[in-house]
Protein 1
Amino acid sequence: MKRKLNLIVLLVVLLVSTTIMFAQKTSEVEFTYDNSGNRTIRQIVNLKIAEETTHDTIKPKSTYQTNYAEVIADQKVSIFPNPTAGMFKVVIDNYQENQNISIYLHTVSGILIHEIKETTAVSQIDIRNRENGAYILTVIIAGKRKTWKIIKN
């Protein structure tokens, strides 16, 4: 009887911890770095669900799950759809050609799987050939960086 009770408790704990682990993230930690690459500021940022992006080359569809938008160095950056089936876009409003913008996509274990050094106003990233799961997207504009968790279903 005691063994059954222990097994039930263990299953409940596993179910709860799995649910918490896969719950949608509503905040993230943002870091600011100096010119030497040393971290100077750490702050917690609450993620906001943004309105659908309207851009000349993008026609948002009702099938888009979520459109995240943040401001980095006075530039609005939108990422959608997230979760994704394998293709998602990074849109930079007020994009200017001579800006120093980089986009990196890593696995959760830190392996770089996609890098864009010469961006455009709309960058499309294809991870259809990758496994389902979580990925980390980092956008750096003028030395300021933001990260997002990208979910591939």
Protein 2
Amino acid sequence: MFEIDWNGSSNQELDLSTDPDDTYIVVNAVGCKKCKTTAVSQHRHDYVSCECGAVSADGGHDYIRRVGNLENMIELNIISSPEVSKRIQVICDNSHVIKEYRMKQQAEMFAALDDFKEKNKNNM
């Protein structure tokens, strides 16, 4: 559906808004050309980096902030007008970028649980 072209344009943003003064950030994401992973900011002040730390996204649905070298970034935002954002959100929830982000979150959660078990195995 939303495939990332890692060797393509640095701006692969999808802008579906009709009025630049009335927009909604559906997905706030940046791709890293170095490690070929994404950073997706889910909410305000959610500062997230790619796996190698070269690029970061911040702002969630409220604002778009980037940190890192512009040469390493691929803009992957999806922007729309507020009235169609709910319909687009359903599509975006199934996108490659969001699925990759959720898999990363799940892997981090399992790693933290394994670490907790290892540290507390004598107390169980």
Protein 3
Amino acid sequence: MKIAIAILALVLVAGVSFAAAEKAPKATEPFGAVIETTGVFVGKIVGATEEALTGERKVTVKNDTGETRIFPFNETVELVDKGFHALTFNQLKPGEDVTVKIKKALSK
């Protein structure tokens, strides 16, 4: 009888733990990425995403030392290619060398 109660208790605890893990928020940014708010960053485009519901756009750029940074793609951020041409969101391609310039500090 004691064994059955112990097993039932373990199953109950495991179920509660699993349910709590399912409700935990999921990471939305790459692990170790820094979300930039000012400055200039040079690197290669890793990816560009647009959220369907909000229309919010983000660009992920990684430099030669392995630092990964995420930039909002809006009026405060300018991405330029090697020829110093400004890029639109549709022109962004993974692996392309870019310079990211934040024109002004972003308000939060």
